[in-house]
Amino acid sequence: MALKVFNPTTPTNRYKQWNSFDEITKHKPERSLTVALRKSGGRNNTGRITTRHIGGGHRQRYRLIDFKRQRRDEPATVVGIEYDPNRSARIALIQYKDGEKAYILAPAALQVGATVIAGEKVAPDLGNALPLANIPLGTSIHNIELIPGKGGVVARAAGQEAILSNREANYALVKMPSGEIRKINAQCYATIGKVGNIEHMNVVSGKAGRTRWKGIRPTVRGMCMNPIDHPNGGGEGRSKSGGGRQHLLSPWGHAKGQKTRNKKKATGRFIVQRRNAK
Q1: pLDDT at residue 252 above 90?
Q2: In three state form, how does the secondary structure of the chain look?
Q3: What's residue 221's pLDDT?
Q4: What phi, psi does 49 have (nearest 5°)?
Q5: What residues form DSSP beta bridges with 190?
Q6: What CATH architecture is 24-200?
Q7: Dihedral sign, CA of 115, 120, 124, 127?
Q8: Pairing mode, strands 271-273 and 140-142
C-alpha cells in the first residue's frame, strides 16, 4: 500500500500523508455481514465516564470477521478487499462454493480471485489457516489463537506479523510482534502471512478534526490541570523542578512505565522471553 503526499496548499495538507486505498476493490460492505454499532461515549450503564476521551465520531456498522475460520477443508475465493472503519487492517470478503460469504483479515499481497482454505493438512500458502503444529518454522503468521477453537486474538492489526520460531513437545514457540517469545498450544490455528495495510503506521491525518471523526476526544495534559484534578497539576507557572513536572504519573497515580501485569498471573508460565529482554 502506498501513501499519498499532498502539496502544502493549506496547513492541513502541509504534513498530511494519507492512504491511497489502492488495494481496495469493493467500496460497500456486505450488508448481511454487518451489525449496528452503538456508541457509549465512554460511559457505563450508570452514565459515569469510565473511559476518557471517547465521544462523537462518524456512524459505523461493525463487520463480522471470521476469526475462527470455522469452515474447514472448504476452499473459498476472494471476492474483494474492503476498508473496515473498525480496525486498521483491511478485510477480505471470501465466498465458498455454496454461496456463503465471510470476512477475514486481508494479508499483505492477497489478490482478488485467490483461493484460501482452512484445515489441518492444507498447504502453508498466503491466507490459509492451519494449526501451528503443521506450519513450517520461520513462517510469518497472524490471527493466532491462544486457546484452540476460540479464534485468533494475536497479531490482528495492520502490518503485524508473528514468527513461528520453534516447537517443543505440544507447544509452539512464537515470537510476538512485541518481541516477546511465548509458548502456544500447537493445535491453535494461525493464518499464513503478514496483515495488510503495512504503511498504516506512517499515516499523518493532518488535522484534529479527523481524530474527532474517529470518535476520539481531546486529551488534556495533567500538568495543565489543578492539583485536585491530576497528580501532575498545580505549580506557579511552568517548572521543570517542581509544580507538577517532576512526577510522570497517570491520573490514578501510576508511574509511566510501571509494570502493571500481575506477577502471579497463571499464563505467565507460557512467556519464554519478555518483550524488553536485553
Answers
A1: no
A2: CCEEECCCCCHHHHCCEEECCCCCCCCCCCHHHEEECCCCCCECCCCCECCCCECCCCCCEEECECCCCCCCCCCEEEEEEECCCCCCCCEEEEEECCCCEEEEECECCCCCCCEECECCCCCCCCCCEEEHHHCCCCCEEECECCCCCCCCCECCCCCCCEEEEEEECCEEEEECCCCCEEEEECCCEEEECCECCHHHHHCECCCHHHHHHCCECCCCCHHHCCCCCCCCCCCCCCCCCCCCCCCCECCCCCECCCCCCCCCCHHHHHEEECCCCC
A3: 85
A4: -75, 115
A5: 130
A6: Beta Barrel (2.40)
A7: positive
A8: unpaired
Average pLDDT, the chain: 92
Domain ranges, ordered by start, for the chain: 24-200, 221-269
CATH superfamily membership of 221-269: Ribosomal protein L2, domain 3 (4.10.950.10)
Average pLDDT over residues 171-183: 96
In contact, 139 and 191? CB cutoff 8 Å: no
**Separation CA 229–CA 222 (nearest Å):** 8
**Residue bearing the bigger pLDDT, 235 or 134:** 134
Q: What's the pLDDT score for residue 240?
A: 58
Closest by alpha carbon to 63, among 76, 80, 44?
80
How far, in Å, CA of 202 to CA of 120, rounded? 37
pTM comes to 0.89
* Band of pLDDT at residue 131, cut at 50, 70 and 90: very high
Rounded Cα gap, residues 115 and 142, in angstroms: 18
